[in-house]
Amino acid sequence: AQTVTQSQPEMSVQEAETVTLSCTYDTSENNYYLFWYKQPPSRQMILVIRQEAYKQQNATENRFSVNFQKAAKSFSLKISDSQLGDTAMYFCATNRDDKIIFGKGTRLHILP
Amino acid sequence: KAGVTQTPRYLIKTRGQQVTLSCSPISGHRSVSWYQQTPGQGLQFLFEYFSETQRNKGNFPGRFSGRQFSNSRSEMNVSTLELGDSALYLCASSLARDGTDTQYFGPGTRLTVL
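Structure tokens for the assembled complex are given below, as produced in the milestone run.
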């Protein structure tokens, strides 16, 4: 069974708008971590945000924030005031059995 | 600190050949993981090395192997290449080996099998 599900294969939004990328996961870990990674076109994958499951407060990094719903096993990423440089593949991930499992990704296009 | 480096960046091989890819982690990182990225399957975990030992392995055939050296540099080998092995191969390094820590990715090696 797929551990991390990203239901939106591709999205497009206008520059300066707010966009939310969905992610649901399945885990049997007692304590686990959730991640959003960004892979810009032809550039290296980088961490956007990291959330520890036992922390109630949603993680934020500047314009990027998450909505972590532990009971629903949902971990969505919100990008506020989107910029052209946010165009990228976004991968949701979690740790399982001592390794990181990635979703299939959401390709996000920011339109001028 | 220098980032994760991978060599070569591009490779073209023919079916049946073998290939070796190299990854140098961030200084101080002892965990190196390898992933295969394809448009249809996303990122799939190949294996992870920590302190020269393979700690974890994904669901790939035995044609895929790797190793890690005492300086934490890692190599990945694919023997008897198949067309379906065409992919971007990413390596990532981290401090922890349990998947809880941030992974720092290299630029990848784009392998094309003809």
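The CA atoms of residues 53 and 70 of chain A lie 7 Å apart. The interface with chain B takes residues 32-33, 35, 37, 43-47, 50, 91, 95-105 of chain A (CB under 8 Å). Further analysis is deferred to the final report.
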